[in-house]
């Protein structure tokens, strides 16, 4: 299967096999599952992994690892007939132990009929880099049936980061060493009670439009920018009676970034023209792919390498409608900027009241050694024959030359 594609699942129960090649220096990996209602778990009990191997409903269980020569697998069992009615989606994830998934060769996920072992779907993940946790796939309900989607979305914050993203409260122990007088044996150490770590979100408003990444703790590592959306039928009369083109998934939004580096180089990172950028080379910004579903799990994702923040002069994060709608209205699109360290910063595109196909969302500028995020929320309406990219370029004086592109 290709990343982002989906297939119907007719089997009442499936075995989910995650596999990879073993070898010296290759990190170990672990499979896990999250049961979601409205995009979040209801409680920590909806997280199935090696330390909590079975869901209370009996619908999902972790069956453990097997090795065979140079191959390894970790397996989950999902009884779709027993998944509670309110559960809309089962996330199928993996976490790496001792390294990143860029060091794990041959990573794949297979969906098998639990009754006879027939392979129903397979997705091979080939583009991992610094990620330490991965959503490889998802089982989701659609019009009374179950479907499987190949996802391939990574996190560089490990299993804890992935779990936190879906509503799990992660306890992080305080690492303190007891002190004793010289020559005195230390007393038995009792782990202190720890409060759950809850990172509050930052919402930029017209009254408070800017935030310092340094003050939020976002001074290194990766800044992940996620776009997701959904399609709902527009009411009659909106923008001349326009309606959403089709059922959910027909609308295709693109997450993009204009950049200007400290040495004066300028460019764009976007799916159009396959300008996906790079994390470890200029422009130090990377788009992980072109998602066309708007899934809350996948969407589209930019990674900005904050270890090279001194190489940035300014970055403009913007969103375009590639096809399927004539406005952001009623698409319920959201963008989240999530530093490796620090609170996530949320943006909503629900404020659109004009027939706009391009939104300048956030301007990130360097001031000394700090990056400041400024809320823009500018819904631009391109002139006839003018592309969304050229429109946002003119509005911000980027001064680039544009040619038609395809994807």
Automatic annotation (TrEMBL):
Renumbered residue ranges of the record's region Disordered: 174-198
Sequence ranges assigned to domain TerD in this UniProt record: 1-166
InterPro entries found in the cross-reference section: Stress/Tellurium_Resist, Tellurite_resistance_TerA, TerD
Entries under Pfam families matching the protein: TerD (PF02342)
Family membership: Belongs to the CAPAB/TerDEXZ family.
Protein name, as recorded: TerD domain-containing protein
Source species of the chain: Streptomyces beihaiensis
């Amino acid at each position: 299967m290709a990343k982002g594609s989906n297939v119907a699942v007719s089997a009442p129960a499936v075995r989910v096999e995650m596999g990879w090649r073993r070898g010296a220096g290759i990190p170990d990996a672990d499979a896990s599952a999250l049961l979601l209602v409205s995009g979040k778990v209801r409680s920590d009990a909806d997280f199935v992994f090696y330390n909590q191997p079975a869901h209370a409903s009996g619908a999902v269980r972790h069956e453990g690892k097997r090795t065979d020569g140079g191959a390894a697998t970790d397996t989950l069992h999902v009884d779709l007939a027993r998944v509670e009615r309110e559960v809309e989606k089962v996330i199928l994830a993996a976490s790496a132990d001792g390294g990143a998934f860029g060091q794990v060769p041959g990573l794949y996920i297979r969906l098998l009929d639990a009754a006879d072992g027939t392979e129903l779907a397979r997705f091979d993940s080939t583009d991992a880099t610094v990620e330490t946790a991965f959503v490889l796939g998802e089982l989701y309900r659609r019009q009374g049936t179950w479907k499987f989607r190949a996802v391939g979305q990574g996190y560089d914050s490990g299993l804890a980061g992935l779990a936190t993203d879906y509503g799990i409260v992660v306890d992080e122990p305080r690492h303190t060493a007891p002190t004793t007088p010289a020559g005195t044996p230390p007393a038995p150490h009792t782990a202190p009670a720890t409060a759950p770590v809850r990172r509050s979100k930052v919402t930029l408003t017209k009254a408070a439009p800017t935030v310092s990444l340094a003050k939020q703790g976002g001074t290194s590592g990766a800044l992940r920018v996620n776009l997701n959306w959904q399609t709902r039928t527009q009411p009659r009369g909106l923008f001349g009676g326009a309606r959403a083109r089709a059922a959910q998934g027909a609308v295709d939004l693109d997450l993009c970034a204009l950049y200007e580096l400290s040495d004066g180089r300028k460019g764009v990172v976007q799916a159009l023209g396959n300008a996906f950028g790079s994390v470890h080379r200029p422009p130090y910004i990377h788009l992980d792919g072109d998602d066309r579903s708007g899934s809350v799990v996948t969407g589209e994702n930019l990674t900005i390498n904050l270890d090279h923040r001194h190489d940035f002069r300014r970055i403009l994060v913007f969103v375009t409608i590639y096809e399927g709608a004539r406005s952001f209205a009623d698409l319920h699109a959201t963008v989240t900027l999530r530093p490796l360290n620090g609170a996530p910063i949320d943006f909503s595109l629900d404020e659109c009241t004009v027939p706009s196909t391009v939104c300048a969302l956030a301007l990130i500028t360097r001031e000394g050694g700090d990056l400041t995020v400024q809320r823009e929320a500018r819904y631009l309406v391109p002139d006839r024959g003018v592309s969304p990219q050229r429109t946002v370029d003119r509005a911000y004086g980027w001064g680039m030359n544009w040619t038609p592109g395809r994807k």
